[in-house]
């Protein structure tokens, strides 16, 4: 019966593509309508600065894509997707001219973390060893009845803690600083519950998978997903913004890779009043201010170890990063913001003309911020790489409004599809998760579980639920 159902997906981000592939695998005819001129949402590569310099418009580093249970089940390498691992997943420079480097192997990491080596190993080893069990459990709606209750209880006991509570186990300020940078990916203040979970997941994934970048950039992930979908009989229609679901009456099943605010705009007439009220209460998280650079040379890091990693976290000590994130949570702009930086061209020569380089950097800002953070971001890069500004050939700053104009899901610059606090972790965006009040309409974006990041698991679970409802 499912095979006869005509289906479509609104939006071709990684979750829209994952949803469409699941529907196509089940034999449904499926079309994707994508607003922008190219597919992939926040997983696209563009010449944002100068000819020949390829920049990742949104995401750049992919532990969760490489470790995604669904993406791992697809033959994406057959369509050219190739992961590149820098020798170390992460470098975190400090003011004394050295850097804390997170090694990929947990034994190497424990050795390099000195006095915290054993604590690090004891904290992470059980989860690193069981990533295959843990990943499907954490990359789905919060499980009331987990399939692996002992593992999940063990993970939950630590993951629910704040980053501040977790770092109290470390003796060295260096380890504390490094964990702060990983936990700051949560967009939460580092004394908030759940902020520790992000730090843990980043650290576990660094050892269990690595933090790879794709050869030729983000677009090669979206390209591989599109090619696989096409092979299964699906179609992607770019430059096809959906302004109202009333234009899609011929489809019996509609999955929406959009956030709640957009769903209200395109589907309000089809939704019940009580569901509309719930979506109206959905909260977005802080935004980001991003800069892409074309460079004449590699970044001149004072700590040369920073050249071993595609990802570099700039923010100094735990206390400084905590203050920066606290400011953003309170609606303020940090004077010395925590900056996440990627330097892919050091490991992938397809990103820039010979001998030249690219860099990608962003900091967190209040949602919808209109403040220009360029000087503050460059201040942080210069702090750890004096002379950086002299190698800049061109730069392109993207404010929250610019980002949203290039991908409507980036509401106010929020890259996670909505705040990820305890409430929206469990009820995302409502207790129905993927289902809406209209029986043929489902949500499949990062505003559903498990939330932001490139893993496709929101789309996977949404499509599975949609198929169950169709077959019923
Ligand atoms: C600057 C930045 C840095 C990031 N860094 C990382 C990272 O390093 N690693 C990581 O794992 N994640 C990262 N992320 C997050 C990650 O990219 C997102 O969580 C992920 O892309 C969400 O996927 P999605 O499919 O839900 O939405 P999106 O990727 O946002 O895709 C949504 C798609 O829907 C389309 N759309 C919206 N409305 C309509 C409409 N009405 N009609 C038709 N089409 C529509 C949009 O144009 C877009 O193509 C980053 C994001 C950004 C922006």
Task: Describe this protein's structure.
The protein is of the alpha/beta class and 472 residues long. It has helices spanning 14-25, 63-66, 106-112, 117-129, 131-138, 149-159, 163-167, 173-183, 195-208, 219-231, 260-267, 273-280, 318-329, 374-384, 400-406, 422-426, 457-471, and strands at 7-10, 30-33, 45-46, 55-56, 83-84, 88-93, 99-102, 213-214, 235-237, 253-256, 287-295, 309-314, 339-342, 357-365, 392-398, 441-443. Helix 1 links the parallel strand 1 and strand 2. It starts with 6 loop residues before the first strand and ends with a helix. The structure holds flavin-adenine dinucleotide (FAD). Flavin-adenine dinucleotide (FAD) binds at residues 10-16, 33-36, 41-43, 58-62, 64, 241-242, 257-258, 262, 266, 288, 290, 362, 403, 407-410, 415-417, 445-446, 452-454, 458.
Task: Give me a quick take on this structure.
The protein is 35% helix and 15% strand. It is α/β, with parallel strands linked by helices.
- The coarse silhouette is globular
Mean pLDDT: 96
**Based on DSSP secondary structure assignment, what is the total number of beta strands?**
16
Termini Cα gap = 9 Å
Low-confidence stretches: none
Biggest β-sheet: strands ordered side by side in the sheet: 7-6-12-13-14-11-15
Structural class, by secondary structure, is alpha/beta
**Number of H- or I-type helical stretches:** 17
What are the bound molecules? flavin-adenine dinucleotide
Largest sheet: 7 strands, mixed
